[in-house]
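QUALITY CONTROL LOG
STEP: pairwise intake check
CHECKER ROLE: data steward
CRITERIA: each record must contain a sequence immediately followed by its structure tokens, with no blank fields

ENTRY 1 OF 2
RESULT FIELD BELOW
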Amino acid sequence: MNRIERTEKKYQELFHQQIMASKTDPELLTILQRFIFGEVFYIGNLSDKTRELITITALATNQTIPQLTPHTNAALNVGITPIEIREVIYQLAPFIGYPKVLNAMEAINKVFESRGISLPLANQGTVQEGQRFDKGKEKQDPLYGDGMKQNMKTLPGEFADAVPRILTESCFGDFYTRGGLDLKTRELMILCALATLGGTERQMVSHASGNLKAGNDKETMLSAMVQLYPYIGFPRISNAISVIREAKLE
């Protein structure tokens, strides 16, 4: 197939409809569609499910909420479960903040309701209130050790203990312990969110290593960056690729 044929095929698979021409910007939409669906979707080792989760991650992180509606539908169309979609967005909270997650979930939940999916979805929490630190540490240590605690130990007063504790409890205890999403997917989506945010190369170094420990090889991470390119632009992708190229198990 040529690029035009690939575009039409992939668009139909994702959105279950034929491509409709734009009435206002047909040239731009044609460039966009052929690049994303005729080219990017065919580069690398990712499944369409993973590609759509990456797209949803980028859209939520960027708060480009209108595009979340068609891509949530596309995610469901390619077999991603509602819980998987929800958990990818929930996992973003420690990285992009809760208000943005709430904005994204409002759009996603409207899609769920339009497709007859009952809300709320089944609970996926596995940790009781008093377990957040210990259970979070069980998830954190194999991937990141005590690096954050060591980095924060020179902070004054209570902050030396409070900042790393908050990270362990909120990021790892509240979210990494949840069901509905495997560790490899969580780590890959976090790396994608960090790349989307920009200016997070320091954090990406740790999470690129965390991805390797979780079982995502460099080909997978590079494939994810190519998938992100249409949504976040080349400069951020170039920075992320540099980090991934140097990533190693620590």
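ENTRY 2 OF 2
RESULT FIELD BELOW
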Amino acid sequence: MKKKAQIRYAVSFVILIVLLLMLFFWNINAGSVQMSVKEIFDIIVKKTGEQTAYNIVWQIRLPRILAALLLGGALSVSGFLLQTFFGNPIAGPFVLGISSGAKLVVSLVMIFLLSREIASSSLVMILAAFVGSMISMGFILLVSRKVKRMSMLVICGVMIGYICSAVTDFVVTFADDSNIVNLHNWSLGSFSGTTWGNVQVCTVVVLISLALAFLMSKPMSAYQLGENYAQNMGVNIKAFRISLILLSSVLSATVTAFAGPISFVGIAVPHLIKSLMKTAKPILIIPGCFLGGAVFCLFCDLIARTVFAPTELSISSVTAIFGAPVVIYMMVRKQR
């Protein structure tokens, strides 16, 4: 049985890596300018080729693809951490209103800076999103003390999300027209317009957070068996829960800061990875979720920018189409 499980894990990782590589090169080639495999190889590896194609790959497509890869993986891992924290597979940054809280504060900061013609840095956006995430998480934690049923907690999270969205819309109503355009494009959710500077900041924040989450795999495994068991195994429950909250908030805040609110990735992908691997061990699920989230967002971004080209769909709309049925299936199966 142990050997079969190890084979399953290995096959699962191989499948995810192959899908990731396929979608990576498919995304590079997809668009109004078509390129052969040799052209793509020369541009990426040898850094030679026709100037227009070279600029399209290096200045537009590669930063966007890497952002989708990093942020998709970050959002998926954030969802898994929240599901571990609350002990329920329906918990996620979008459903619990954490992404909406981040969106509200980022919107306020963007409007404030744009109205004064001040350029907003990546760090400022991440900090603003983190503050918004922590405010929403604070409300959720307060509600969780009064409400014991997870279904009620999810409903409260959805209501917090609606309140944050309503306040955001109210603020946008009184913003300048130029500010509304910038905010509207961002608030729909998109990886377009990503720069290499954004990718560098994302890489540092996401990889550090991912490494810290991976180092917490052992206490997470104990926590999954119950707080009492984890405490008996020497886990500091209070410090552990705070660490989970901070890591999940940083990851979801980074996604919201650079790509806007993206729905259902944090719920659907961890469930799909658990179903693929037939395990919930954090030491396997965390890297699996990162790869799965990257694959899922690369696939959805490919659809968003190619299906109705030159019109581009918001990434959140596409992820909802594929992620929502997974969530519905989870809820029906749990009810049974």
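INTAKE CHECK: passed for both entries
DESCRIPTIVE NOTE, ENTRY 2: Residues 51-86 form the longest helix (36 residues).
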